[in-house]
Write a structure and sequence with these properties.
Length: 184
């Protein structure tokens, strides 16, 4: 009987520890942000030539065969407001709410600058764009930063290696009422 009670206490302590760790990661922007700051590799850099909207950019063609079909890059796991391709934007002739702000944020960070691309399990989408995680020169993962600042939602439809982390970042931004979530 006493051994059973001791085991229950141990499991309770383990469960509390896991819960505390989860809460720490979910509540601390610095800890979560550091998860997305790997050391940038010296190879695989591409200069950004154009920003279409917050989740689609164009890079200079690189002699390496790393890009799926072309130089248009779609950020993996990011669902940003559209500048002109959503049904609302086509119908009303206006960008989605917050699209201009989100696109300006991306343009300021990457246009004319080198970025490092990392690819997920799927290399391309049905529109011929290459799917990638986009890292800035300082190691910041642009995909995660957009979601963390509330400029985009975590794209939940397709699985990818950082899906759960992106969902946590969206919940953090929503709770802090950042970006898209300021008026909710």
């Amino acid at each position: 009987m006493r051994a059973r009670s001791l085991r229950r206490r141990r499991w309770a302590l383990v469960a509390l520890f896991v819960l505390a760790l989860f809460l720490l990661l979910a509540r601390s922007p610095d800890v979560v942000r550091d998860v997305f700051r790997p050391e940038p590799a010296p190879e695989g850099w591409h200069r950004v030539t154009r920003v279409f909207d917050a989740d689609t950019i164009e890079v200079e063609p690189n002699p390496s065969p790393s890009l799926a079909e072309g130089s248009h890059i779609r950020l993996i796991g990011v669902d940003a407001p559209e500048m002109g391709h959503s049904p609302r934007a086509r119908r009303e002739g206006l960008p989605d709410p917050y699209a201009v702000v989100a696109t300006a944020f991306v343009r300021e960070r990457v246009e004319g600058k080198p970025v490092r691309l990392e690819f997920g399990p799927e290399r391309g989408d049905r529109y011929g764009r290459t799917l990638a995680y986009v890292y800035l020169e300082d190691g910041t993962l642009l995909n995660a930063e957009l979601i963390r600042r509330g400029y985009a939602r975590a794209y939940r439809r397709f699985p990818h290696p950082l899906r759960e982390e992106f969902i946590l970042l969206e919940e953090e931004a929503r709770g802090a009422r950042r970006g898209l979530w300021t008026q909710r």
